[in-house]
Amino acid sequence: MNDSDELAPAVAAILRSAEARGDPDRGPVSVDARSLPAALADAEADGRAPVIAEVKPTSPTTEGTREEDPVALAEAMVEGGAAALSVLTEPDHFGGSPENLRRIREAVDVPVLRKDFVLREAQLDTVRADAVLLIARFVDDLSGLVAAANERGFQPLVEVHDREELRAALDAGAEIVGVNNRDLARLEVDLETFESVAPEAPDDVTLVAESGIGAPADARRMVEAGADGLLIGSAIMDGVSAADDSESRGDDPLSNVTENTRRLTRA
């Protein structure tokens, strides 16, 4: 695990919370997962951008908290064409919960990614999901955690931020890799991060571009750079960037979420 002194204070605080969080009082779970790579490929074959829409009540980089029912938000995203969903289960800084994920996964028929700061094997057993996020920079035994996730039936999505972390992810056996465009030290977003890392990935790895996709033009840019999937949160929850949004937003938050998702999946 890298030195927390190199992290933005908000990220370091989230990491400390994850380290202190208790482990679930249960044995290993078993998951019959819906295929995330297949869902992304099916979306592209159907002429849609392969969007993983994120149910994110709040975050350190956004203002306010969404009060809508998480299941209703998830269903609105699927209605808008999302190929898969990402659901926050981190409680202290993102307002997420395992119960939200459980309810959403029961309500939809697309793959659901659990997004959290999972640091050790026991934390995998918190809740069943189709895929689970593992952040390469924060995991001491990445190979062991990838293997443990696979043994349970999870599809591990290993998040990286540079070429060195990509090599570590591949060495650990990652078959799905997310490249986060957000720098963890300054929290700045640069889409060139994905563009610099993607060419180093083997063709048989499913690549997901994360963070900074705020408009259809950004989605197209990431797909052209090699993204098989697009993890999008704020632009769906809060609205597409004005540069690409000529239509006025309505008063119904759920309808807005559906329309925001639709605009991005049509990119």
UniProtKB/TrEMBL annotation:
NCBIfam families: Indglycph_syn_Halo_TrpC
Amino-acid biosynthesis is among the record's keywords: yes
One example GO MF annotation: indole-3-glycerol-phosphate synthase activity
GO BP annotations, alphabetical order: L-tryptophan biosynthetic process
Upper classification of the organism: Archaea, Methanobacteriati, Methanobacteriota, Stenosarchaea group, Halobacteria
Assigned EC number: 4.1.1.48
Gene name in the database record: trpC
Gene3D superfamilies: Aldolase class I (3.20.20.70)
Protein name: Indole-3-glycerol phosphate synthase
Coiled-coil stretches: none
Keywords from the UniProt entry: Amino-acid biosynthesis, Aromatic amino acid biosynthesis, Decarboxylase, Lyase, Tryptophan biosynthesis
